[in-house]
Amino acid sequence: MTDTPATVRPSVLVIDDESGILETLEILLRNEGFAPHVALGGRAGLEKIATVSPDIVLTDVRMPQVGGVEVLAAARANDPDTPVILMTAQATLQSAMQAVNEGAFYYIQKPFRNDELVAILRRAAEHRSLRVENTTLKREIRKRDRTTTGAPIGNNRKWLEVLRLAEAVAPTESTVLVMGESGTGKEVVARYVHDLSARSAGPFLSINCGALPEGLLESELFGHVKGSFTGAVRDKSGLFTAAAGGTFFLDEIGETTPATQVKLLRVLQHREVIPVGATDAQPIDTRIVAATNRDLEEEIRRGNFRRDLFYRLNVIAIHLPPLRQRTDDIPILCETFLDRSAAQRGETPKRCSEAAMEALQAYAWPGNVRELENALERAVILTAGDRIDLSTLPESVTERKSEPLVSDRPAANPTLDTIERAYILWVLQSEQGNKTRAAEVLGIDPSTLHRKLSRFGMDA
Question: How far apart are CA 336 and CA 362, in angstroms?
Fold first, then answer.
């Protein structure tokens, strides 16, 4: 066969506990246009996955210490687009088939023909190429269309970590819980997860759980049957059903009542809904993404949120940083919002003066990205020319107030408890009372912070 250029050879990591098999497969794959890497045993394979990041993993199922199923999990955690092919003897065929159900690309039974293995590897390489191309194209579309869409924007380290986690979880069916202050972009991240998932062609529906009274919220979520309450003149499908084949975004899930939480728990446990007034359950096929600006662990301690529902929602948790922790993204956010505004108005985009940008980056933004966008919209309306200056920004942004770290009159000789109490209070205020985020800043567990607050009499 014609040799494939080394730069485009798919890399294959072969993992087996028999050195003879590794040597044979290494020669075969190199001759067939692949770039092989080998690892003797599962433990060495896990190390190679982290360092090599192969395009394809070919692993034996039964190996001492670390088996093929563990290798599968590690490979998918490292890169969800990596196809994993399992080599198995008859004795382990059942476990291999189970692994395929858990995400393996294929299994091949030993002994196998060389041409059979090569054909499977080429299909795996094509599969990976298409997955990677699809993800890349979607990212490029978002970059090009950022002036007209709500795509994620920013290059801050913490923000990029959020996007990488969203990209990793998007191909799965796992429930996602997005946490962050109001205005940080929770729905933007939820849409990003949907758009990069296998459900992207399906609907993305959302509801603000705090915007509707309990009775109306349950009707919207689960649907109702005719005559179930006054005004129910016909059967109506709920949003869980309407989102079939797509994603359903439950915003502000922390605002739901205990009665609604019980019904949501049933949906997550059994993947079915019972419409209001009905007796029969209806199966659903939707991916669930929830969001909250509340500290749900604190709400659990207060008895306002069910612990079992939290565990069902908190399969994959994505914590969004507030804008004050990603001020280096403010210039690109401003440019994007101003470009978007200009496109809607059919005008030339305005830009911020140096002084205006300094003020924007110095402000704490308690309303986060949403507040920034609103401030820029106001500035665009009030700016006659093409340059936004301090005069058109809100006074809250331009009037910088000097606030003492702890108190205007600190104790002359404060004790360690006094200093610790003051510091915890300052961090809590900086994080808008979010105890989960405050614990992260303090470098302690939320349970440790809770104990300290109790000791200082600061529970409320």
Answer: 19
Q: What SS3 state is found at 251?
A: strand
Q: Are residues 205 and 228 in the same domain?
A: yes
Q: Which residues contact 299 (CB under 8 A, 6 or more apart)?
A: 254, 305
Torsion of CA 20, 21, 27, 33, to 10 degrees: -170
Using an 8 Å Cβ cutoff, are 364 and 181 in contact?
no
Task: Count the neighbouring beta carbons within 10 Å of the beta carbon of residue 164.
Answer: 10
The closest of 151, 147, 150 to 340, measured between CA atoms, is 147
Between CA 254 and CA 401 the distance in angstroms is 33
pLDDT tens for residues 342-398?
988 888 999 999 999 999 999 999 999 999 999 999 999 999 889 999 999 999 898
Same-domain status, 29 and 75: yes
Show the tokens assigned to 33. Answer: 């246009």
Point out which residues pair with 309 in neighbouring strands. Answer: none
Q: What is the pTM of this model?
A: 0.60
- Cα–Cα distance measured from residue 393 to residue 380, given in angstroms and rounded to the nearest whole number: 9
Residues 69 and 162 in one domain: no
Amino acid identity of 90?
A: Q
